[in-house]
Design brief:
alpha/beta; Rossmann fold; eight-stranded mixed sheet; 25 helices; globular
């Protein structure tokens, strides 16, 4: 780390290059219902400079494994096996002994940086503390080192930002601070536990680049724990797939992605919507839910969900064994030879459901009814100061002249970073109140013409919403029957008709009607989201607003919900306004896409055209930031990294609001730059339905579509 210069590089390595070795790791926790076997016999090695990706659904044991390695599990946890760092055993060491090694030899980047950072101390104080605990650096030298670390992870004005508190940083910058603290003492192993969860795609790309820099600068081994298969494809050298507390397949990243042998791995890869896939057929979800780790039945834990399961699969649990593609590729499946031999193709293992032909497929867009029209909509919020006598000191322009329309049976995807105005746009539409400027018309009725509560209630019957967090959307004190019956009672349906309708709704979203007496907490996350969708459809609406409906779900569960939404739209002729940050999901489900930046739509058009020929630099950066679950493609791609964070809507840049982060702006001549500084570009049509707000728009190929499957 020559840039840091104050800490001598450690050179201690084992002869084989292995830094961390885990052997037969078991972790269990006591509970009221019995012993939970969270980790069951996990083994792996990580060499210097190597990245091991650990993937799997929630509850598979990924994070518990990392916490056991770090020695951060509660005292009630029972841990056995072996964890050696440079050949030295870590299990059984006291917390004092482990504390001396945490930070210097092994470090961790946690999922939630705001919880990991102390809010009452400045960022500089916390980095300096991490340095001083493990080294003799003091005073100004420690502050200089802290500033160098912030500069290394890409935080501008590092000397000034040392004085800032965690809440004064954005989510991505806080995660970069965590990475700076993790590499402060040049550790030999860095464990990153879901470091990009809940971050915008542009910030995620920046954080991943910082992790690559940290790996390069320190030469450390990296363990990357994530549910995002695209992230692993672009970062990892080797992959370990976990299920029910144990590894079920492990090997090189190319083997796992190109030649998977375990049905669970194949199912995970098939569940992921791909950014480079213009075919919009149904995904292949892994049906069912992971098993309870309280009392696992004999045999393979995946057998109840596996389409290939036979009687022998339910007798003995298979062990990891090498496959023909190489000794490093191991799989725990008794039928892996059939998969490896090509006797079982992907469609044989996870049959893709047939797609229902949309009821309006034969009707041109121009001939369809407009269910929502937004024209020049504005929404701002006053910024005030003072506890008793409040005075207005500014205005937050959250939505600034947004226009779009949605036709019958159509899905419009609304994308952009957090703070760009997507949610404010949704709430303004759902309020059914006149906007500050512009107009909103639902099913041909201008909301400004609605005279009272009765008229708004009638409109709401045709306008429903599904929120991101299903558990927060459902009252935990009410059984599912009452949750689904509530909107029906509000609109005057009889008791007999309600009972029939609730049963029909449960079947419509793929749930068992006899489970209506259960409470939301008795269902899985994907099932709860299906309940929210059923509730939204109870009154047979024509337009459904979907606010990040699959963001909090595992990829295997997400695929089933996406298929359900697509099926319902085709069968019922529904229209969707679909808000998401995952452009791969948006490409799979949306007919048209609108890209928002700082309160404005900067590009809008038909989905495949916009993905194939993005014209606005911001759209190009968003598409570039989305990883593709294909290691070959990921190695070839060039990221368009945006500098800095989204500007405050309180102090918007003059002229083009994107110019402060625009990679194209830096390449322009003085006269063209001045145009961007002084003139705010209008949304101008280019070809067909495509419109762009950029003075110097140009097509840049960011995503090369994969070849259609035969």
């Amino acid at each position: 780390m020559s840039e840091l210069g104050t800490v001598e590089r450690k050179t201690r390595r084992t002869a084989a290059g292995t830094v961390l070795s885990v052997r037969d790791l078991h972790v269990s926790f006591p509970s009221e219902d019995g012993v939970v076997s969270a980790v069951r016999g996990v083994s792996f090695d990580v060499a210097a400079g190597e990245v091991l990706g650990i993937v799997g659904e929630s509850g598979s044991g990924k994070s518990v494994t990392s916490m056991a390695i770090m020695g951060l599990l509660p005292a009630s946890a029972k841990v056995s096996g072996s964890v050696t760092l440079h050949g030295d055993e870590l299990l059984g060491r006291t917390d004092r002994e482990l504390s001396r090694r945490r930070g210097t030899e092994i470090a961790m980047v946690f999922q939630d940086p705001l919880s990991a950072l102390t809010p009452i101390y400045t960022v500089g104080d916390q980095i300096v503390e991490a340095l001083q605990v493990h080294s003799s650096i003091r005073g100004d030298a420690a502050r200089r080192r802290a500033a160098e670390l912030l500069e290394l992870v890409g935080i501008p004005n590092p000397r000034m930002r040392l004085k800032s508190f965690p809440h004064e940083f954005s989510g991505g910058m806080r995660q970069r601070v965590m990475i700076a603290m993790a590499i402060a003492n040049d550790p030999d192993v860095i464990i990153a536990d879901e470091p990009t969860t809940a971050l915008d795609v542009t910030i995620q790309a920046q954080v991943l680049e910082v992790l690559k820099t940290a790996r390069h600068e320190t030469g450390a081994a990296v363990i990357m724990i994530t549910h995002d298969l695209g992230v692993v494809a672009g970062l990892a050298d080797r992959v370990q797939v976990m299920y029910a507390g144990r590894a079920v397949e492990t090997g090189s990243v190319d083997d796992i992605y190109q030649r998977p042998r375990m049905p669970y791995t194949i199912g995970l890869l098939g569940s992921v919507p791909r950014l480079d896939d213009r075919e919009r057929g149904p995904l292949a979800p892994v049906e069912g839910n992971p098993p309870s780790l309280l009392d696992l039945p004999p045999g393979c834990p995946f057998a109840p969900r596996c389409p290939l399961a036979e009687d022998r699969c339910r007798e003995l649990e298979p062990v990891l064994e090498p496959v023909d593609s190489g000794a490093d590729h191991r799989v725990a499946c008794v039928r892996s030879d059939e998969v490896a031999g090509g006797n079982l193709g992907y469609a044989d293992i996870f049959p893709v459901p047939e797609r229902t032909q949309p009821v309006l497929a034969a009707v041109d867009r121009d001939d369809r009814v407009t269910v929502l029209r937004v024209d020049g909509m504005h929404k701002s919020f006053p910024l005030t100061k003072g506890a008793v006598f409040k005075r207005r000191i500014g205005t937050v322009h959250a939505v600034d002249g947004v226009s779009f329309d949605i036709r019958e049976g159509e899905t419009l995807g609304l994308v952009g970073e957090s703070g760009c105005g997507k949610t404010t746009t949704l709430l303004q539409i759902l309020d059914l109140l006149p906007p500050e400027a512009g107009s909103v018309a639902v099913l041909g009725r201008d909301v400004a013409s609605l005279s009272g509560r009765a008229e708004r209630t009638a409109i709401r019957r045709d306008l429903q919403v599904v929120f991101q967090d299903p558990m927060a959307s459902l009252d935990p004190r009410m059984p599912v029957f009452d949750l689904l019956a509530e909107p029906l009672r509000t609109h005057g349906m009889s008791k007999a008709d309600i009972a029939v309708r609730v049963a029909d709704l449960m079947e419509l979203v793929g749930l068992e009607p006899s489970h209506v007496s259960r409470y939301p907490q008795h269902f899985s996350g994907g099932q709860r989201q299906r309940i929210c969708i059923a509730r939204a459809l109870a009154l047979e609406p024509k337009l459904v607003v979907l606010d990040e409906p699959v963001a909090s779900l595992d990829v295997s569960i997400q695929a089933g919900v996406i298929n359900l939404l697509d099926e319902l739209r085709s069968r019922l002729g529904l229209s969707y306004l679909f808000v998401a940050h995952d452009l791969a999901v948006v490409r799979h489900i949306a007919d048209r896409v609108a890209v928002m930046y700082l309160g404005r739509i900067v590009e809008i058009g038909e989905t495949n055209q916009l993905f194939a020929e993005p014209r606005h630099p911001y759209t190009q950066a968003l598409l570039s930031a989305i990883p593709i679950p294909d290691p070959v493609k990921e190695r070839e791609r060039v990221r368009i990294l945006l500098q800095g964070d989204l500007p405050s809507p309180l102090e918007r840049p003059s002229g083009c609001r994107f110019r402060t982060r625009c990679p194209l702006f830096a390449t322009l001549g003085d006269a063209d730059r001045q145009r961007c500084v002084s003139d705010d570009p209008d949304l101008v049509g280019t070809a067909g339905d495509h419109a762009v707000a950029c003075h110097f728009q140009r097509v840049v190929e960011v995503v090369r579509d994969k070849q259609p499957t035969s």
